[in-house]
Amino acid sequence: MSPASLQERRERVFLVLAGTFLCAMTLLNVIGITRFVQLGPMALAVGVLPYPLTFLCTDLVCELYGKARANFLVSVGLGLNFLILFVLFLGNSIPSVPTEAMPPWQIIQLAAPVALPNGDIVENRIGLYQLIYATTSGAVFASMLAYIAAQYCDVQLFHFWKRVTKGRYLWVRNNFSTLMSQMVDSLMVVTVTFGAAYLRGDITTKALAILVGSNYLFKACVALLDTGPFYLAVHYLRHYLRLEPGAYAAVAHAPEYRDSD
Predict the structure, then answer these.
(1) What phi, psi does 170 have (nearest 5°)?
(2) Which of 33, 48, 60, 172 sees the fewest Cβ atoms within 10 Å?
(3) Nearest alpha-carbon partner for 142 in 37, 38, 75, 48
């Protein structure tokens, strides 16, 4: 295989990993806390379901492409978070068409006054977009703060454990980096999202603790379960990308390179 063809193959794999990472992150922000589901003892926002994939993708990029490429991917995701927040704000700021011109499915009738996550009190009816904005805008801001802390933390911890173990014990850097960074993520995203509601007395300390615990328990279980797929992916992709142990595939002008992490 020519160096150009090999580099194209490596960039295609990176594109798949990056696309999966960004898709899972965007789903968290778009569907966010619009619905909670019960998985055994865990009460979870539906946006959390695909989120553990982001840590698997960053760990694979760390292992195969190095710290610089992983940090670049996380930075792109941060930029997309700002874009999502801007579009939500823009859509909420532009004047709506008259109520009588709205399709019936854009108006939700309420049986009783409802306190929205952003603090607004709705008396009898609410527009569909207003409801989505109220339930996602605060969650997007919270996820941005959690994202900054957790994803960069995951990249740094992955390479920290790699240095500590001298490149051995793949499961150590995969699990310990993810488990620790997901604890940061779970604490921040739940407390920031529901902090205002907690201070108003709309949510109890017990309910807040259950949300944090359920959020982290789900992510931790998925992190432990993905150890096998992570090993298989690294083994297959190193062969597919023609990488020697310890080599990275992130430099366009060279088939592979190594760094000191």
Answers:
(1) -55, -35
(2) 172
(3) 48
Six-digit token string for 129: 């977009």
Q: Using CA atoms, how far apart are residues 250 and 66, in angstroms rounded to an integer?
A: 7
**CATH code where residue 169 lies:** 1.10.1760
- Rounded to whole angstroms, the Cα distance separating 90 from 84 reads 10
Query: Of 117, 177, 135, which is closest to residue 153 (Cα–Cα)?
Result: 177
Q: Is residue 249 part of a domain?
A: no
Give pLDDT, residue 139: 65
Q: Is the pLDDT of residue 230 over 50?
A: yes
> Which pLDDT band holds residue 12 (cuts at 50, 70, 90)?
very high
- What is the total count of domains within the chain? 1
8 A C-beta contact, residue 211 and residue 194: yes
Do 241 and 204 touch, CB atoms closer than 8 A? no
- What are φ and ψ of residue 167, in 5° steps? 80, 0
> What is the domain extent for residue 54?
3-94+103-240
Distance CA 143, CA 186 (A): 10
| Sheet strands (E) in the chain | 36-39, 42-45, 107-109, 114-115, 121-122, 125-127
37 within some domain: yes
The answer for residues whose C-beta is within 8 angstroms of residue 56's C-beta and 6 or more apart is 178, 226, 229, 230
Query: pTM, whole model, 2 decimals?
Result: 0.75
Q: How far is CA 237 from CA 14, 61, 174, 199, 225, in A?
A: 11, 11, 16, 48, 19
Q: Which residue has the tokens 């160096």?
A: 3
